[in-house]
C-alpha cells in the first residue's frame, strides 16, 4: 500500500526512526504539510499518517484513494470523523502512550512552585550565597507538598497517574470527572468545590463543548490566593485572558501551561509576561522514549489495518 507521512518533523528530528513504517508499504515522507498542500501531499496514498494536519470534509473528499488515517497522537479533533464514516475511512489513534511523560511534566511544574529551585539557583549563581550571613539563606518561600490538596480535572490514564504520584507525596487528591469512577483512594467533587479547596489544579480532560474555557474568570474566582493552575491537556480549556488577569492581580499564585489556544504561540497571547506564569512549547509528550513508543504503536496500527484487523480505531 502507498503510505504518506505528512508531518515527520513533529515526531522526529532525526532521533526517532520510521523504519518499521517503511517496511509496510511504499512510503513518501514530508517534514511538514501546509494546509494548501494537504491534498497534493496525500496524492494517491491509501494510508496517511499525520499529527495535527486538518482533515476537513473537503480535504477528505478530494482524496479518493484514502482508506486510513493514522494519528501520531491521542487526540483526533483535527479529523472530520463524520465524513470519514461516510467515506469508509478508518481512523486510528495512539492512546495512553504519553501518560508517564505528561505526569512527569506536571510534577516538574508543581515542584517548581513548591521548591523554587530555579530562583535559588539564580540567587547562588549571582553570588548571593557568598554574601550570606547564615549557612542557609531561605529568602524565597518554599513549602511541602505533603498535606496539600491537588484538584484533578479529568480522570483518564493521565489523571490517574497524576493522582498516584500525588499520593506518593502524601497530598490529598480531589477529582472532578464527567464519568463516574470506582476509586476509593480519591475524593470525587463538584467543580466549584474543586476550585475552592485545591492548592494545585491540573487539567487532564479532553477538549469538548463542556470543557472549552472551563478555567475562566468565574471558576478562578473560587480559588485560594495560593492556588497554582496547571494545564497540559488542551489550550482552549483555559480562557487565557481570564487566567492572565488572575495572575497579574494576585488572585492566584501561579500557573504553568504546556498548551495554548494557538500553537505555535501568537505574538499577542495575553499570558506573555503574566506574573508567575511558566509556559513550555507543548513538550509534555516529547521525551525520546515517549516518541519511540508512539511510532511503534503507529506502525502496529498500520500493520493491523493492512491485515484486516484494525486496532485503536476511533470511528
Secondary-structure map with pairings?
Blueprint: E1 2-5, H1 19-22, E2 26-29, H2 38-42, E3 47-50, H3 57-61, E4 68-71, H4 81-87, E5 90-92, H5 99-115, H6 117-125, E6 149-153, H7 157-168, E7 172-176, E8 187-188, H8 191-197, E9 200-203, H9 217-221, E10 228-231, H10 240-248, E11 254-257, E12 277-279, H11 288-306
Parallel strand pairs: 1-2, 1-3, 3-4, 4-5, 6-7, 6-9, 7-8, 9-10, 10-11, 11-12
Helix pairs in contact: 5-7
Please give a structural write-up:
- With 315 residues, the chain is of the alpha/beta class.
- The protein folds into two domains: 2-95 and 288-306, NAD(P)-binding Rossmann-like Domain (Rossmann fold), CATH 3.40.50.720; 99-279, Rossmann fold.
- The chain contains eleven helices and twelve strands.
- It has helices at residues 19-22, 38-42, 57-61, 81-87, 99-115, 117-125, 157-168, 191-197, 217-221, 240-248, 288-306; strands spanning 2-5, 26-29, 47-50, 68-71, 90-92, 149-153, 172-176, 187-188, 200-203, 228-231, 254-257, 277-279.
- Strands 8-7-6-9-10-11-12 form a seven-stranded parallel β-sheet, sandwiched between helices. A five-stranded parallel β-sheet has the order 2-1-3-4-5, with helices on both faces.
- Helix 4 (81-87) links the parallel strand 4 and strand 5.
- The longest helix has 19 residues, at 288-306.
- The protein is elongated.
